[in-house]
Amino acid sequence: MSEWQVKKLEEMTARELFAILYTRSEVFVVEQECVFQEPTIEDLTCLHVFKVDEKQDLVAYARIIDNEEYITFGRVITASKYRGTGEGQKLLTTVIAEINKRYPNRLVKIQAQAYLEKFYGSFGFKSVSDYYLEDDIKHIDMAK
């Protein structure tokens, strides 16, 4: 299995981009039954954090976005065949380390699916909003 990659869009190979967009669509649009634009305009300027396996299939992925006022990350996914293997924790460890390296001492805010509140809490994130629905999925805002 490869190492974690952190790349801008123009640094990615066509195969890497395909694996990311395919898996994001598979998870967010098909599995979670959310109809929304995928990919999004943020993909042009964000940092893509990912790992692929020996077949070049996506293992896990997130993107980091500098919103000027704060840093955020999202589109956090672990491919279905790698769920429960610890790759999600490794992904978040990598994402947070990359944020700390590139954007030291900046506020980090995320929109978390409510069932992952404890997971993000284990990385130091605190809830900063009430629960709300986005795409019919319960979410909460968190910050660190």
Task: Characterize this entry briefly.
By secondary structure, the chain is an alpha+beta fold. Helices cover 27% and strands 30% of the residues. The chain has 2 domains: 5-105, Gcn5-related N-acetyltransferase (GNAT) (Aminopeptidase, 3-Layer(aba) Sandwich), CATH 3.40.630; 108-144, no CATH class.
Q: What key attributes describe this structure?
A:
4-stranded antiparallel beta sheet; about 140 residues; alpha+beta; globular; Aminopeptidase
Structure description:
It is built from 3 helices and 8 strands. The chain has 144 residues and is α+β, with helices and mostly antiparallel strands. It has 2 domains: 5-105, Gcn5-related N-acetyltransferase (GNAT) (Aminopeptidase, 3-Layer(aba) Sandwich), CATH 3.40.630; 108-144, no CATH class. A 4-stranded antiparallel beta sheet has the order 1-2-3-4. Strands 5, 6, 7 and 8 form a 4-stranded antiparallel beta sheet that branches. β3 and β4 form a beta hairpin. The protein is globular, with a radius of gyration of 15 Å. The chain starts with a strand and ends with a strand. The model has no long low-confidence stretch (mean pLDDT 93). This is GNAT family N-acetyltransferase. It holds the Pfam family Acetyltransf_10. Residues 7-144 form the N-acetyltransferase domain.
SSE blueprint:
Layout (H helix, E strand, L loop, with lengths): L4 E3 L6 H18 L15 E6 L5 E9 L4 E8 L8 H16 L6 E5 L3 H5 L4 E2 L4 E3 L2 E7 L1
Antiparallel strand pairs: 1-2, 2-3, 3-4, 5-8, 6-8, 7-8
